[in-house]
Amino acid sequence: MHRVGSAGNTSNSVRSRKEKKFTYVLNDSDDTKHCAGINCLAVLKSSGPGGPDYLFTGSRDGTLKRWALGEDVASCSATFESHVDWVNDAVLTGGNTLVSCSSDTTVKIWNCLSDGTCTRTLRQHSDYVTCLAAAENNSNIVASGGLGGEVFIWDLEAAHAPVSKSNDAAEDDGAASVNGLGSSLTNTSMRPIGSSNNISLHATQSQGYTPISAKGHKESVYALATNNQGTILVSGGTEKVVRVWDPRTGSKNMKLRGHTDNIRTLLLDSSGRFCLSGSSDSMIRLWDLGQQRCVHSYAVHTDSVWALASTPTYSHVYSGGRDSSLYLTDLDTRESVLLCTKEHPISRLALHDDSIWVATTDSSVDRWPSEAHNPLKVFQRGGSFLAGNLSFSRARVSLEGSAPVPVYREPSFSIPGTPALVQHEILNNRRHVLTKDTTGSVKLWEITKGMVIENYGKVSFEKKKEELFEMVRIPAWYTIDTRLGCLSVHLETPQCFSAEMYSTDLNISGKPEDDKVNLARETLKGLLSHWLIKRRQRFGSQASANGEIPSGKDMSTRTLALSRIEGDSTAENDHVVYPPFEFSAASPPSIVTEGSQGGPWRKKITDLDGTEDEKDFPWWVLDCVMHNRLPPRENTKCSFYLHPCEGSMAQILTQGKLSAPRILRIHKVVNYVIEKMVLDKPVDSMNADGAFAPGMPGSQISHPAVVGDGSFWSGLKPRQKLKPCIEILCNNQVLPPDMSLATVRAYIWKKPEDLILNYRVVLGR
């Protein structure tokens, strides 16, 4: 599990003072399919006659889904969206409670039969949470383990938190004072079921709200399992040992050695007497906890064992892993048979009557025959072999040189996913992104609308990238990753506000063509238009008209002082969403962000209800969307000199340095030169530093004046009305009229010094 920085990693390490990030997640397919590998499965049997069975899937795309199962049909009846990173495990407990854990360091609790609402979030872990275990006959007990080496045992029935959060119904901010996510601890959702094991550095200690901590792991925990009664807990990870705990107290019972590599999966029998373990050493081991020793080892796989499931009587084990093969092994006779082979490594197994659901690193889930109630039927079909007891590389002779033949060629049923994105390239115009998915399909996205605008099919990604190259320079105003199998677009202040375009280049009708459009501001307005409508309905026009953000309490966590804000004098104080920034309501993106309290959260933009405020959103997002105010930005100007070409008879128009917006087009420079030549203004109409004086009759200033190095006055006559013909050159290269100063500097000038432009009169045109 590689570590990638994400909006959701709320590690207990000291956080930097960077402002909170705002991310939006795009998916061009329908929302009823996963778009990344499946990490976990759970089956819920129908509680009454005629009701459907349900399958729950958790994915690397950050969501869980509930599938209503029919004879040969599975329909997605709910998406559970709140995690901001990979969902690593999920368990069902108590009939209607779903518990999930994620690389975002949280454990979340859901009503599994709801429409996908998270009822509480537990933030006790300091690193990725990798695994969960639930006691079948004790619905109160759930254990969680993660890369921080922590194992926590939770009593779910003890949670009495009031509903008070807009993104999740309740939060346990146990680590809030440590990780800097806020200091409000009133929403804590857990009380301890034992007080003998306290967790250091947790602010909830004083209130007594801590789960039991099973202390002993010095390294990452990858696997947990418990018996039906919840009286025994086993754990394993990178230390290569199986640890056995009493979950009621968190005390260590024993440590079992035998594996030579990471332990990736564990399975206890119902009584807690026997334990199966699967490891990266390719071995499956059967442990007798009463005797505290390994009684059998099974060499059936050629690579890491990642998933185990047993028949109801614990007589046979199904196993899958990195070798993409699913085996059934008789624990008594050691006879093993290859059930099927997959294209991708097998990550999780779940038995369902006489079938078995198989999840892989692909986004689809398959159902295969299992004969769990009568596994002998499978062995009667032939093809079995005797499992060795040495690691497979040394026991290959046990197969007598022949590879086993799979019993089944095709699954009995499949729930398809959509291909995950594996490659992306941000194009130079900074509005388009080229992507390639696992099937090799190449698509072009428009980031400011969140949609695919071209599907090129299976073509060369590199050739298409070259084909789409444009000589244009726009500042990098966002970053992108495809960690969730889809595009995640990250905005951070103040960098995100550095990119501007003219309205004419965006084809925005009804706006003057020289109006500057800030791409991040308009994108944020498009993303939060639904939220703003809901907020107005809830709070009236005051929600956006004045400087207050009605939230039930003052914005004490941050004062929006005007001294920190740069007002944009060209911005109208409106909330119109222009067409290039309209996001689809049919397949809306999700946003991932955090405010002053509660930690990161994720929600569809159409699910925002207007109650979210500074506790949920970064202050700079609210200030931009509600008040059209942008934070101070880096210099958006470009300084340059304008001289006649060498040998040209053209008059010298200016001696000093000029300054203009980076997005200014060369045809504006042409206009400037012609205007100076035609009007032949005396020298006293110039400022001392050579900036064109903004007080000439008949002129209109379309850009705000700049204090300092002189403003380049660009509100001149349209070029189509001009009579003389002027060419602008840089490095002896004639510049196209539509090229911007930033593009000239990046692709033609290519030097750190101030840009030098030359002009000449072209005769005979």
From TrEMBL:
GO BP of this protein: double-strand break repair via homologous recombination
Keywords on record: Repeat, WD repeat
UniProt keyword Repeat present: yes
WD repeats: 80-111, 122-164, 214-255, 256-297
InterPro entries linked: WD40/YVTN_repeat-like_dom_sf (IPR015943), WD40_PAC1 (IPR020472), WD40_repeat_CS (IPR019775), WD40_repeat_dom_sf (IPR036322), WD40_rpt (IPR001680), WDR48 (IPR051246), WDR48/Bun107 (IPR021772)
Gene3D superfamilies assigned to the protein according to its UniProt record, in alphabetical order: YVTN repeat-like/Quinoprotein amine dehydrogenase (2.130.10.10)
Domain of life: Eukaryota
MF (Gene Ontology): ubiquitin binding
Record-linked Pfam families: DUF3337 (PF11816), WD40 (PF00400)
Presence of the UniProt keyword Repeat in the record: yes
Database matches in PANTHER family: WD REPEAT-CONTAINING PROTEIN 48
Name assigned to this protein: WD repeat-containing 48
Species name: Olea europaea subsp. europaea
